[in-house]
Each structure stands twice: as C-alpha cells, then as structure tokens.
Amino acid sequence: MEADGWRCSRQRQVLFLFMFWGVSLAGTEFGWYSVMEETERGSFVVNLAKDLGLGDGELVARRARVLFDDNKQHLLLDSQTGDLLTNEKLDREKLCGPTEPCMLYFQILMDNPFQMYRAELRVRDMNDHSPVFQDKEMVLKILENTAEGTAFQLERAQDSDGGLNGIQNYTINPNSFFHIKITGNDEGMIYPELVLDKVLDREEQQELSLTLTALDGGSPPRSGIATIRIMILDINDNAPQFSQATYVTQALENSPVGSLIAKVSARDEDFGVNADISYSFFDASADIRATFQINPFSGEIILRVLLDYELVKSYKINIQATDGGGLSARCKVLVEVLDTNDNPPELIMSSLSNSVAENSPETTVAVFRIKDRDSGENGKMVCYIQDNLPFLLRPSMENFYILMTEGALDRESQAEYNITITVTDMGSPRLKTQHSITVLVSDVNDNAPAFTQTSYTLWVRENNSPALHIGSVSATDTDAGANAQLTYSLLPPQDPHLPLASLVSINADNGHLFALRSLDYEALQAFEFGVGATDRGSPALSSQARVRVLVLDANDNSPFVLYPLQNGSAPCTELVPRAAEAGYLVTKVVAVDGDSGQNAWLSYQLLKATEPGLFGVWPHNGEVRTARLLSERDAPKHRLLVQVRDNGEPPRSASVTLHVLLVDGFSQPYLPLPEAAAEQARADPLTVYLVVALASVSSLFLLSVLLFVAVRLCRRSRAASLGGCSVPERPFPGHLVDVSGTGTLSQSYQYEVCLMGDPGTSDFKFLKPILPNIQAEGPGSNSEENPAFRNSFGLNLQ
C-alpha cells in the first residue's frame, strides 16, 4: 500500500539534535503513515529512503532498523529497496481495542552517525466485525398503566470496530406499541431506548415479542439482532432505590481472586413479591463480566480474575436492581485499580557491538531503551553499570541510553570486559533487571617485539660440524594473532669484512642459530652480529639484539719446534767442552703451539739418550743441560731425542733429535763432523796414508803430539781474540744468535755462531753463551716458572 496522504493538522514536530562524545543522535520530523488492518503480510507502506531523503544503499550502510514501542516487529524494512512493508496481518481491534484512532509508535535507528527518527503508524479500521448483543433475549416487565411516551433503556450492542464502522443506529420491527429512540452519553456512546406509543392492556395481550436490530456504519453495513420479550404486569407503583447513585472503590492489582470489591444495596417500598430485589449487571461488556461477578441477592461484587493495572486502570460497572414487580433502578460502581510494583524494568537492546578496537577514542558499544509498565514511583527507573570499568552510560532521549567507552582501551592490559547493565525501579520492593554484555578488545599492532636479553653470548668449540645448533635468541610480543607472530633475521654486519652469511644462519620461525661451517679458533676467536625480530602486523614493528659468538679452542695443533730446525738437512751438532761443569747449558729446544690456554702449555722430556744420565732437559723451558761432570771416558758423540708435549686433552706432541759432540777444546768445531770425516777419509787417500804413517812411524808420535798442542794453543788464543771462535783457512764470519726473553726463555741469551765449512749445509751451532754468568743459572733458576715460555719464543739472528 502507498503511504497514506492524511496528515494531522498540527505541524510536524522536530526532534532535537543530540550530540556528545563523538556520537550523533539526530531527530527529524514526525512521520505519520497508515495502513489498513488485515492487510496481507509484505504489503507496501512507504519508501523510507525516499521519505528520509537518503541515497541508494545508505540504509544498508547505516544499518537502518525499525523498533516499535511494544517491542513487536509489526513492520519490516527492506534495506536494499528502502521499502517499509507489513510484517504481519494487523488486527486493529487486538492492537488498540475501542481506541480510535489506532496509533502504533516506532523509531527508525541508523548508525554512522547514530540517528533516530520518531514515527507513527495508524492502523485504519475496516468493517470486519458485526454488532453483537451480550444477551440475545432481553426481558422487559412493563406495568399495564405505564403512560404513553415512557422510555425504557435497552442494553446496547457491542462492536469491536470503531469510528464509522462502529454502531450507528438501532431499529425494531414495525408494531403499534413501541418505537426506538437513540440517545447518547458523555462518552460518545449511543443507546437504544424503547418508547411506549400506546397504553398497554394486560387483559388484551399479556406479552409482546420485538426484534431489535443494531446497525454499524460500514460499507456494506453489518448488523446484529436481539429479541425483546415484553411482559405486561399488574401495577407495581414503587421501584427500587439505591442508597448511592455512584459507588467508588479501589482494588490493588494483586488482589486475590474472590476478593470483595464492592457491595451495592437498594430498597423497595412495596411489599411482598414487589419488594423482592435482585441485582444484576446492566449493559456490561464481556471484559467486565469476565472480571467481576455479582451476587444477585446480596449485591456483592466479587473478583473473578486477577487485575492488571498495566492493562486496565479502572472499571465502570452498571448495576441494575429489579423488584418482584418488574420495576428497576440503576447505579454505577467505579473501580479504580491501584498499581503495585509487580513488573520489573525491561531493557530493549537497539544496537550492540561486541568488539572494540584498542586505542580507539570514545566508541559506541550499545544503544538500548528501558521501560517499566508500572506507574508512579513504581515506574521510575535508575540505570547503571559496575564501577571501575572504562565505560560510560550516557542518557539520550525518552529512556534511551548509550553505552560507550570512556577512552582508548588497551588489549594488553585487559582483552575482555564483562559489563552488567542494571536497571532498578523505585518501587517497594524494588525490582531490577540485569543484562550482561561481553566486549572483546580487538588487537592493534602497538607493541614491538622485545628480546629476552639485549645481548647474547654463545660459545662454540672449534672444528664443529656444519649446521650445528649453537644457541637461540628469543623475543616476545604482547600483541595477539598475526601481530604477535615473529620472524627472526640476521642484520647486516657492522664489519664489512666479516663473512656473516657464510658463518651463521638463523631459523626465521624460532630464532635458533646454526653454524654453517667449521670454525677455526686460530683463524677467528670471536665475532659479533645483530639479530632482528619483526612481527607480522601492519605496519610491522621490530626490535634488535646483539649476539657475540666466542670460539673455544680445541687441541688441534701439535707443538712446532722452532729450534733446532728439523728440515731434513744435515743434523745440527752441539759442541760441549769436556771441562763443562754439571748444569752446563748445552742448547735450548724452542717450540710453539698454535692453540691457546692450557692447550699451548708445553713441557719437554728427554725420551732417549746415547748415555742416560749425562744430559737432562728442563721440562718447562726446554733447556738441555749436563747432568754431571764430563770425563774422558764419556763417548765423544751423543744423540738425544727430546719430546715437546702440550697440555691439551688428548695431548699432542712433537720430537726433535739433538746431536752433541764432546770436545776437549774449541778448536775442534772446525773439524769435520765424524760422519763427514769418515766419508772424507774414504774419499781422500792422503788421509789414509797419514793414518798409516802415524801408526807405523812411532818415532814421529812425539812430534805429532807437540805439533797438536801447539796448534791447539794457537787456535785458543785466536778464538779469544775473535770472541771464542777459531778461524780456519777460509774466513768464516762470526754471528750472534739472540734468543730474547720474551719467548719461552727465562732471560735473553746470546750464542756465538760458527758456520760449517761445508757449503752444502747452512746449519748453525750454539757453542757457549757469551754471558759469563750463564752457568750460574742452575736448577733453582726461576726460568722454569716463567709463564712466558708457554706462549711464544723469540729468536733473533744478528
């Protein structure tokens, strides 16, 4: 159906504009719409989008909805088309009863921004009910001497329709004694009265039967009939009289069934049967007859059902008293229903959002209306929520409230709120209604990941296997969902020369760190890099931490002997004078270890010697010294095997072979080595001849001895002048070897060096220390305790 064109003469009222805290409640003019009752479901009422001046799709975008005051969905809004349609067949008589016009009030709510429109729907009556008489037969007892023109009021018919469709006229069938007269009362109701046109004669006719017809104003009109049976009586000249024309009484709505509401009383001056009075309802509606009953003998009005103030606030009951002679009198009983606090408040939710984004400003959570069917103090209400919640209740118009956040919420502090809205009336006892709402705070990526430590230190033993898990970094994010899912990564190294990509990798999901290749302590003792943790929010947030990796040393390097050289050339021979005392420093084994710590602590041990007990090796500094005085019986040539071992687990070692030649004086250094002399003897016949000559010519022995002593004395004197080194036929330059105390030696040593005459070798010899006090350093010297020997050796060739 199209929107009805009727409009009340009063101008459209304009609702007020209500704004606060970013929420807009806008009112517009009243809208009056109408629809015919009994219209089929889905019938068109009005196009709201056009009537409100809204564009296409705006009703959907703003979540438009229609709410009726009686909390029933009489109309249905099609948000796509903007049409307002009937949601059911509307029965005006059920909705409004006899009230005319029948108005249904509703609101139109829209969000973004929030707006409210008040509107009214008139349900137009159609003539769908016929008049009905409560009593299908009415009995009148009329005295035969009743004067012409006397009027007898009849019970009116009931018609559920209103307005023009209500009862408009009464008629009776044609007769010569009576006609119908229509009268009205101050409430706008019409009553039929039976007017006597001709004096009755009981002797001629004792009883009459007439048909009363009630007509409504519908098109076509509907009618209802009742029979009037008239009994003509003998004269009864006194009618009953009530003590009061109107009785006023009150009854609580919670009065129990069977309660006495009122008692009426009438008396008759007649005697006998004409004085017997009976009480009955007169012109009572079906509702009154269902609610009350009257004792026909005592006049007591008894409650048949419970009263409900919210449905009917008062009753007007017409009581008729009839004597035995047929005369009657009438009175009114006004029953005022008193309200009791028997209805708790009602909370009607209009709009609800169960999720609020954190960090959002004041946000509307719910819009609702409260009402109480009671009246007075019983109908006054107070609405509130719990304390200590970041939410506010803002009153709007006509008992509307808005639940909104007080400010920005923080999901990390509290992710869920349980809000209880309590509505309490002011009655006694007070009744209340509670409505619980759960509000979830949706997460916003406002928290960066945080590492459990700002820096991490990891230890890895060298020679590790590739892809070894060396440790982990961990970060947490107080956000939720994707905002808390972290991705780990390596940051570009600060040192551009550090090949970080080939050293370590990180698992992007759990922060596990892996060594990509085997690490070598001797090449890289430590390195440092940065790691980052980034969440998957938008925009993504991240944080950083530093990781320092320390490579632990493993005993993977054997000691390396610096002196004497072990290069496969002719062995180096150490010369020791036979006059050397015990503790004489023969030489010093110098070795280093590429490891560190205790893996580089070196110890020396004499494994094998030609003559055990003649030489000893100091375990801490590698010095080879004589263990006792030398004698002429000691073999001139000795071979010593010295082992150098580190302190690692398991220990590693290296060995070196020393050749020691005992000489009587320092002229012998320039003689060939024993092995070389033997070769030369085989190669030089002159030598053979000389040996034979010396053996055979004993006469020349003394001369030879004298010559040998003279040559020895000569060479000693020359060696003293040249630093203790005799010079052979070819000049050999003297060199000094300085072994600095910064190495494993306890102090600096300088040795005189004489090169061999054989051009095929480049070995050098330690003859004896230049320092005169070198032999003073005995076993009690602190060279053994000097820790410097564990680290390095210095050897400087001058």
TrEMBL record:
Q: Which Gene3D superfamilies match?
A: Cadherins
For the Cadherin domain, which residue ranges apply? 77-133, 134-242, 243-347, 348-451, 452-561, 576-671
Places the protein is found: Membrane
What keywords are annotated for this sequence in UniProt?
A: Calcium, Cell adhesion, Glycoprotein, Membrane, Repeat, Transmembrane, Transmembrane helix
The region called Disordered is annotated at 776-798
- UniProt-listed InterPro entries: Cadherin-like_dom (IPR002126), Cadherin-like_sf (IPR015919), Cadherin_C (IPR032455), Cadherin_CS (IPR020894), Cadherin_N (IPR013164), Protocadherin/Cadherin-CA (IPR050174)
Q: Where are the transmembrane segments?
A: 14-35, 688-711
Bilayer topology reads: Single-pass membrane protein
Name listed for the protein in its UniProt record: Protocadherin beta-10
**Organism of derivation:** Equus przewalskii
